[in-house]
Amino acid sequence: MPSTADRRKHAAKVVRRLKRDYPNADCALNFETPLQLLVATILSAQCADERVNIVTKVLFAKYPTAEKLAQAPIRSLEKTIQSTGFFRNKAKNIKACCQRLVADHGGQVPQDLEILVQLPGVGRKTANVVLGTAFGVASGVVVDTHVGRLSRRMGLTTETDPVKVERDLMEQLPQSGWVSFSHRMIHHGRRVCKARRPECDQCQMTDVCPRVGVA
Ligand code: SF4
Fold first, then answer.
1. Active-site residue among 144, 161, 168, 207?
2. How far, CA to CA in Å, does 31 sit from each of 20, 60, 115, 163?
């Protein structure tokens, strides 16, 4: 097991390389307000960001505020978001989440991780996305399927549980880089280090990546 200092050194190399290759990587979900990003992130579970962006354009035109979403008829909400998959559960969560925002937070999204994760449909990943991307608050490292997979391949963690992966990443990365790290890993995961067939021969990370578990 490498020492903490060695792990941080390795992580720093990965971070430098990602920064070089994806200097402007940002969130692929379209949003104008923290609420819109919160709802878009709930919708993005098991759904491509491009599809979510198509759906949210219609959804936010119909229901532009937490109040409107809280009052939206559930069937109409379900129909509008149907193409994102798991639409019954997502509609129920979005409505309940907005009802709570209206009742307890004046219809605004709170800038607090502990409060956010109490909202229906909001887990640590969604809370970190909203805090980091909408508010610029580095509350943690967003660990989605790309960040988890790449972190294991790059030797930054051996964990599979996203909470444990996040803990390992938070230990190794400086807090100032938590938000951009996830955006860059997601870009690299989509473009090069793909789930089924990572394109190692096209990858600029080969000299820093131990390719753990890659045939
Ligand atoms: S070298 Fe291969 S496994 Fe490592 S980051 Fe690149 S594509 Fe992924």
1. 144
2. 26, 10, 21, 26
52 burial via Cβ count (<10 Å: 0-12, 13-18, 19+): buried
Nearest CA to 130 out of 164, 82, 97, 156 is that of 97
What does the pLDDT look like over 92-138, one tens digit per residue? 999 999 999 999 999 999 999 999 999 999 999 999 999 999 999 99
User: Is the distance from the beta carbon of residue 199 to the nearest atom of ligand 1 less than 6 Å?
Assistant: yes
| Contact yes or no for 142/132 (Cβ under 8 A) | yes
To the question of pTM greater than 0.90 for the whole model, the response is yes
Q: Identify residue 158 by its one-letter amino acid code.
A: T
CA dist 33 to 56, 58, 133, 154, 171, Å? 12, 15, 10, 34, 30
211: Cβ below 6 Å to ligand 1?
A: yes
Of all protein residues, the one whose alpha carbon is nearest to atom 3 of ligand 1 is: 211
